[in-house]
Amino acid sequence: MRGFVYSLFLGMIFLLGACTQAEEVQHVEAFGIEVMEQNAEGLYEPAGFKKVNSIITTKKDRNYMRVELKSVEDFYDTGGKYIKTVITHEQGYKSNVLDTKEGFHRTEELHEPSTILIPDEDAENFRGDQFSSDELGQLKKHVQSFMKLVD
User: Fold this and answer.
1) Radius of gyration (Cα) for the chain, nearest Å?
2) Strands (E), 13-133
3) Distance set, CA 107 to CA 8, 55, 68, 86, 87 (Å)
4) CA-wise closest residue to 27 among 148, 128, 145, 151
5) Global pTM?
């Protein structure tokens, strides 16, 4: 009888722990950044820049964490000439209960500029931290529209 009560108690604790609410945070971003490449001597030198539209979603509680990246990246050389666009959908998952890690990484390459809300002038230094809620909604919808290419 004591074992039954003990098992019942442990089961209740497990169920209560499973009912905790997971915290989800989403960042919708647009920015430009310099791209560096390693040369023959092992030093990194500027190779151009890229414009990025992305959505990063993190969801976690005490039992697991999931991180998802959806991005549209336009690559340019040091002279500002367009090279390519890379669409990425990536997800990583780590369970603390089962001690497992899972995920996927999918990409597709396009050959026309596809980012939005980033000006051409001084794009490698652009930080879109002053977007309105309408612009963030537009950016999110834009990035999600490309995911059909990689899913």
Assistant:
1) 22
2) 23-38, 44-60, 64-76, 82-95, 100-110
3) 48, 15, 14, 7, 5
4) 128
5) 0.82
- CA 73 to CA 149: how far, in whole Å? 14
Question: In this prediction, what percent of the chain has a pLDDT beyond 90?
Answer: 75
Q: Is 50 exposed, middle or buried (0-12, 13-18, 19+ CB in 10 A)?
A: buried
pLDDT digits (tens, 9 = 90+) for 66-123: 999 999 999 999 999 999 999 999 999 998 888 788 999 999 999 999 999 999 999 9
Cα–Cα distance between 37 and 48 in angstroms, integer?
9
Does the CA dihedral 62-17-69-118 come out positive or negative? Answer: negative
The H or E element containing residue 146 is helix 133-146
pLDDT number for residue 18:
53
